[in-house]
Amino acid sequence: FTNFVSAHQVSPADAMQLIDRAEGFKHGTPVPAHGPVYAANLFFENSTRTHTSFEMAERKLGLTVIPFDPSHSSVTKGETLEDTIKTLAAIGINIAVMRHPADAYYEPLLAASPTLAIVNAGDGAGQHPSQMMLDLMTIHEEFGGFTGLNIGIVGDLSHSRVAHSDAEMLTKLGANIFFSGPEKWFSPEYKQFGPYLPLAELVPKVDVLMLLRVQLERFNADESGAFSKESYHQKYGVTDALAQTMKSRAIIMHPAPVNRDVELASDLVEAPQSRIFMQMHNGVFMRMAMLEAVMHARRFGEVGAAAPAM
Ligand code: CP
Q1: Residues 122, 136: one domain?
Q2: Pocket test for ligand 1, best of 45, 97, 131, 164 (most atoms within 8 A of CB)
Q3: So what's the ipTM on this one?
Q4: In the chain, which end has fewer C-beta atoms inside a 10 angstrom radius, N or C?
Q5: pLDDT by residue (tens digit) across 259-281?
Q6: How many separate domains does the chain show?
Q7: Neighbour tally for 83: CB within 10 Å
Q8: Site residues for ligand 1, CB cut-off 6 Å
Q9: Distance of alpha carbon 53 from alpha carbon 56, whole angstroms
Q10: Which residue's CA is the closest to the ligand 1 atom numbered 6?
Q11: 89 and 202: one domain?
């Protein structure tokens, strides 16, 4: 992984290797020694989990984290993302972890600086590969594999980069995917991965019930006025009563932040079948494995590796 930007580039064998490495880090595998490696986290969209988790992973790996705050950067003066990346590369940053509201923002950046690796921390409604990998790790920990598992992805499909990445990768790994939520949000790109089911039919069928946040910040006024919190919860949310129909070993996942009592009844966030906080915990170890894979591919921190050509 010279860059880590999308589910498209991850094979089932890659995924299993990263899961194995992340599980190792979780259970105490020591971090190998390496020379200096510099990372910057460029978050042009708000984040709690992904930002802090990448920074924790970087520090646990022994990387030097160079602060970057978009609101105090020269992007506010009109500097392009390409020039920003070229600048950071010239200064000596090795890895840029980036989140940006534009779909596939990273495509022009991959060519902008061959010496700097891009790790995508979320692009618009495109991809969220680190969330995908930590979701895979959490499912693997629970079930020991993916083949034949029934996974329900429910909620705001039309705006969800998590749904795009997870549906694609879980299909490659042999899981069966089902979708639910407002049917108008079941956009055509999902049909290749699995069918739409009414929620009451989906919930008792699945081993993993993956809820998605209703992304009110991405709706226009017309759309967001189309339902209230309460009406969404009753029609498309997982209520306490609906959760009673889950299989006994099924788990609830959510990338978070959760709109409590909208996509999921508030008390289910901490229920025994919820793995929501375990997903966040696993995210640190998975991001360590992802960053390490990029470092290895680029030979960053390797003694005797050639200095990057400018
Ligand atoms: N799941 C996720 O991406 O959360 P943040 O937006 O808080 O990073």
Answers
A1: no
A2: 131
A3: 0.99
A4: C
A5: 999 999 999 999 999 999 999 99
A6: 2
A7: 13
A8: 47-51, 122, 131, 255-257
A9: 5
A10: 47
A11: no
Look up the CATH number of the domain holding residue 93: 3.40.50.1370
Q: Which of 202, 105, 119, 217 is nearest to 159 (CA)?
A: 217
State the helix-helix crossing angle for 12-26 and 129-143, rounded to 10 degrees: 70
**Interacting residues of 305 by C-beta distance below 8 A, sequence separation 6+:** 299
Q: Which residues of 44-79 form beta strands (DSSP E)?
A: 64-65
On whether residue 139 sits in a domain, the answer given is yes
Mutate to test the pocket of ligand 1, among 41, 44, 49, 277 (most ligand atoms within 8 A of CB): 49
The answer to whether 37 and 63 have CB atoms below 8 angstroms apart is yes
Question: Which atom belonging to ligand 1 lies closest to the Cα atom of 46?
Answer: 6
Measured from the Cα of 256, ligand 1's closest atom is 1
219-247 pLDDT tens trace: 554 565 567 888 889 999 999 999 999 99
What does R_g of the chain's alpha carbons equal in angstroms? Answer: 20
Does residue 75 sit in the same domain as residue 117?
A: yes
Q: Which atom of ligand 1 is nearest to the CA of 255?
A: 1
By most ligand atoms within 8 Å of CB, the mutation choice from 50, 133, 164 for ligand 1 is: 50
Residue 159's Cβ-count burial label (10 Å; 0-12, 13-18, 19+) is buried
Residue 37 lies in a domain: yes
Q: For residue 218, which amino acid is it? A: R
DSSP one-letter string for 199-268? HHHHGGG-SEEEE----GGGS-HHHHTT--HHHHHHHHSB-HHHHTTS-TT-EEE--S---BTTTB-GGG
- Which ligand 1 atom is at minimum distance from the Cα of 122? 3
- Are 163 and 275 found together in one domain? yes
Q: How far is the CA of 57 from the centre of ligand 1 (A)?
A: 15
Percent share of the chain, pLDDT over 70: 94
Q: How far is 86 from 4, CA to CA, in rounded Å?
A: 18
Range of the domain at 202: 129-279
